[in-house]
Amino acid sequence: TTFEVQCRYMSEIAGGAVLAIFQDVTHLEQASQMRRDFVANVSHELRTPLTALMGFIETLQGPARDDEAARDRFLQIMMDEANRMNRLVGDLLSLNRVESEERVRPKNNLELTELLQSTLTSLRPLAEDASVTLSLNAPQDPVSLIGDSDQLRQVFTNLVENAIKYGSSGGIVDVVLTLSERDAAVRGPAARVQIIDQGPGIDVVHLPRLTERFYRADSHRSRQLGGTGLGLAIVKHIVNRHRGRLRVESELGQGATFTVILPYGAGEH
Ligand code: ADP
User: Fold this and answer.
1) 3-state class of 92 per DSSP?
2) What's the ipTM?
3) pTM, rounded to two decimals
4) Which of 144, 146, 254, 262 is deepest in the core (most CB within 10 A)?
5) What atom in ligand 1 is closest to the CA of residue 219?
């Protein structure tokens, strides 16, 4: 192939540099494969609700034209499908934004306990609908750190929303904030936020791939609950931007614990 010819040629003139070039080309090939997969996934995710919408429009133009009860029901389903598309586009835009900002260090001061409290307050109606109790456990003293408060709010919203959605009805979602002098994950002082649910948990085989775009452990359930499959990918980019770490611990039938570990102290106060 052209590539091999090029390699042989390069090897004559550059010796050891060939391996590096080979790795670079492999990397480019992987990146473009990932881009193709992403475009295929987005198209598929958009086409599903779109096909449903077109089907209902056709039915309303034809057989159900004069059926008032059917019309109301179909319009509601159409609205749900349109909402699904809207959520997907919203999440795609968020993903794009957080990816492009990943290398820009956040520089605003924020108070973590307050941020968690107000995030939970806005999620209370959703929790009540699912008969889930939200509880927050945090230190008495304020926990100040440097970060992007809108983005961190999105992190905790996504994680607590998942805990409510996938957790068990009638159960509790615990949010626990703790500080530690030294956390190996961030090689220094850290603030840890754990989001713990009592739901069905996640099979360990899925854990390594959970933050990939559109990866779902339980595809049927995610779609039924209106998930886009992008929430954890967004979370991962924001946590990276804050030089933090995201951990997931779970076993089937044992609930799930998502932990966000953020650097704290030394320059972060
Ligand atoms: P989605 O929009 O599908 O919820 P996410 O990126 O937020 O997408 O999550 C990816 C997948 O991880 C979900 O589809 C679900 O299968 C699994 N998941 C996330 N959080 C939990 C949880 N607390 N309990 C069980 N499964 C979860």
Assistant:
1) helix
2) 0.99
3) 0.88
4) 262
5) 14
